[in-house]
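Before relying on records like the one below, remember that each one covers exactly one chain. Contacts with other chains, cofactors or solvent are not represented anywhere in the record.
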Amino acid sequence: QIVGARAAGEEEMGEDSILRAVRGGKVYASLPERARQLISRGDFYKKVLETSARARLVYHDERYPALREASEEGEYYAEVKRQSLARQSLFPYHLHRFRVTPFQYYRDMLKDLLKRDKPFSTLPNFTAADMVAVLGIGRDEFVPLVQACKAKRLLWKVNRESAIRDQLPGEPVDLMVEPWWVLRPASSPSVSSQQEDLLEEEAKLLASISSRGSATIDSLPSSHQRAWRSLYRRGLVAVDVPIAEDDCIAVPPLEGFVSNKDGAGEDGDPVETLLYGMFFAASARTTIGELAAVLGAPTVEVREAASVACRLGFARRTTQERRASVSSAMASARDGVDLAATPTASGSDILADYPLASPPLEDTASSAGPKGIAFVVDTEVTATLMMGSLLKDQRHAVTLFEAGKLSGRLAVRELLDELSRVPSVGEGEIQFLIDQIQSLRLVLDLVCAAEAEGGCQADGQPPEIDILRYEVLADLPPSTLNRMLSQHYFLVAFMARLPMPLLKCPISREGPVVHGFPSEAAAMPWLRLLLWEQVQSGLTSLALPKGWQLRRLPSIFGHDDRLLVEFWPEDGGRSQDESVVVHASSALGVLNHALLRSAVLVQRIAKESVEGDTGELVTKEVALPLRDGDEGLGGHEDVRSVSERYGLSQCAGYLTMLRTGPGTSDWKVKGVQFGIPLHSLELCGEVCRRCEGAAALSWNSLSGFRDTMLRLRGDLEEIWTRYGNGGHSQREGEGEATSYLPSAPVAFDGTSLRPWSDAEEIWTVELAAETRGAPAAPAKEEEAQPPPLIVL
């Protein structure tokens, strides 16, 4: 029994449990009694060695006593090297006593790659970029290197290692450095043997660095610049990139990024995982400590990742810029207050008192916290930007795709210049891509114009402008997502028609203002039913829950009607893509089949609603925000009623109207899309012109718009509570998955919304209870009944 319990315990105490114990300062003797009964001392320390090496913890760190009990230093670092090479991880620069130089590490990795005849593309992205920086061998250099090895045909077949050895680089390439980087003595065992051949100047410099322990590059005289590079090539000095907790970093457009494969994930390099998160969440005015809080990661690990990013040239330290902006923001916010007369007049005190949390919009003027504007696009737009035939400079598109974010006013303006060079005319599908690029240019012009006017923040500080990729946002846990958005932005504008499910970042009092759907329910047919109920005008409709079946056509529809059947969005997909028009006489079978896989909204439409030749719906789009004196559909009674209720005079997006008769006023509101459309150049241009005219992105408009969207969100929650699942959520893993499906039939008769009461429940064997999302009533085994089927 004890042996069995220990085996079960070892399986239960997996890598995460062991790592938590090590990071918590636990040794075997300090484990709980039950844990010691489940795993032996030897097995515990064996796992400590493996998991610590995988996480690449520092051996001499006083916080990890279990690591020093588990192995000797040499044994531990040998295990770190073995695991890192096996997983093709980045070189562990933070392990100063690793006793292996980056050059030796990547030379061994390259040799193994050649020996196994694997392509360069099998290296993870950041590992490949670092190999290029250290060895000078990238994808272009790798191919001739393989050819040179294979040219020794017999030797390649008999002894590959000998064939490869002569082709490997003999020393590292020159390193591109910043003045604030630090030199320190290397701890490689080959150091002493190489010191004999040093020039006098090199020997003096090495002795000086060794006696001081370290030296910044800008502290060396110009005469020693060549000497330290010679020492670096020989592996006698190492180069550190120091990053402190109060430092800030920014991610410029990526140059030299190697797009191979993503090495992040549970089984990948933990540093690479953090690098991707840091690329997305970093800001020029956010400290490493704040960034760690946003990512929910240990500060020391975020510092290590930031150091690697700066070393590779994918990030730059902006600490001084942040301090300058904070001082300027504080002075502007205090608006003439004599700082010298206050107790916190010193620069250090001002920085210490600077509020780093995200204040409500109304309090920002007093908090002096400069934030930015984000525009969110999807991968389809990013892929368009990456087409080399349209955009010659791919840095910005690669940054947006790989990092998920293009950050800063300068980078956005560079992208705008590149977009302006795209021709306006193309052939076939190319024209759609060109229109999409031109639409993006209009949106960025709108955002930059608002920034240039200085009206986007209460203190007049110019905001940062970022472009974010939707799919990266969707991969973040909701808590991290909301922390990141609240930390960096006061306004987040989405492109229209983003894929479902929506992000879990509804508009709120505390977070940024969202020009997009105010909640997930707003992307569902609930919004349409709410608008129809508010204006007492709309299509005669019936919402049916998933799993219900019809015995006959509901009486609110006539046998000569045309019906628009729309599938309720669920588990992804776009709502407008899932619909079908059927004649009432043949609708029963279509509806019953559709209800087996989805809830549906059935709407009665007119013959004028469908284009005769194509069978497409006849719709028109009304650009938002609305203006006084709008003519045509912009002045339609239903449109005006919706605008008065929910402030469409401040909202970016568009209304979709459906023709319901031959008259000019025979149109009904079919839906609302929040966000700025990029799928139509004409519509995007009209939305941008209206936003500019209404100052929709100005600071003064945001507070009123937030109140309006909060009211819309509340009304949606109320109608969903009445007719839907009432906010009941089911736990899926670590997140909450909320169902926005109707729980009972709901009818709209053209003026009012009410429950559909002509339903009776019978028993049949044709449909399982779980199909409609509810458990069957318990029954005694001898009295087992078939599950229920709901019939109208």
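The two ends are 60 Å apart (CA to CA).
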